[in-house]
Amino acid sequence: MSATNAYAVEVFTLLGLGTLIIGVRTYGRTQLAGIRKLALDDYLMLFVTIPYIAEIVLAYTVKHRFHGLANNAMTDDERVSLPSTSEEYEWRQALVKGSKIQVAGWAVYATVLWLIKSSMCAFYNRLTNGLPEYRRRIRWGFILIAATYLVVLGVILLGCQPLYRLWQIYPDPGNFCQPAISKLLVFLVLTLNVITDVYLLILPIPALRKAQVTRIKRAVLVLLFSGGVFVMAAGILRCVLIIKNPTKGPQQAASWAVRESFVAIVTSSIPVIWGWMKQRLKPLFSSA
């Protein structure tokens, strides 16, 4: 199996599993609360499927159709010698379209992750409903998520001006205008991603300390936190791959972006699915 085919199998498998998990989560919630009583976190997770599908399609397209080409990884001589009317014309078009897809890819990648963060924050809000001491923390969580998302989108769309320079080939638009390897995008998204993830990881800790937690529940929580750590690790790895190897790194980073989104979906869905499964299997876990 070629590398491209193997990549296609991986990303579309993760797409299928991710949407299935969201479907199971939603079904479980309708069984527990009913369709009319679905909460904000449920609707946010359902909405995640739209940018998640877009993320997978864009990741596949940039690798399969444009072979990872964008307006980076070229010398000045290569840029100036690339004519617009010749055998190289299709290659030039691939560079332009590949760069545009990189821009769109950053946007949907951030949208997937930040929607999941919003869903998690709404989930914590639902769990701590009626506990005034947690309202402020959760409110600040929503503010932090919204503010950082706007910053990320603003940098993606406004960090390089005029906008067409994001897919400009000649003259060299500079690193900030090369979306596949832009250090501004890489470090900003990584920093804000980690900050919001850490906030969400520590948000429920005070409540858990006051609650009587069984071994099985602790195991689920350990898995939940482990998933959160993996998501952060995947984001850091993406950054390292892009910075270490600007030529091949972006393609590897795209693979890790898809994995990161998938694990984020799984991690955020585990508590809800667990609550439904526990009700279904209550006789087996009555002593847990």
The biggest beta sheet reads: none
SSE-based structural type = mainly alpha
What is the residue-mean pLDDT, rounded to a whole number?
Answer: 84
The helix/strand order is HHHHHHHHHH
| Share of β-strand residues | under 5%
Describe the secondary-structure layout.
Elements: H1 3-33, H2 40-64, H3 76-80, H4 89-127, H5 132-158, H6 183-202, H7 205-210, H8 215-244, H9 249-280, H10 282-285
Helix pairs in contact: 1-2, 1-9, 2-4, 2-9, 4-5, 4-6, 4-9, 5-6, 6-8, 8-9
Question: Could you walk me through the main structural features you see in this protein, from its secondary elements to its overall organization?
Answer:
Residues 30-277 form the Rhodopsin domain. By secondary structure, the chain is mainly α. It has ten helices and no strands. The protein has one domain.
Give keywords.
288 residues, mainly alpha, elongated
Summary?
The chain is mainly α. The chain contains 10 helices and no strands.
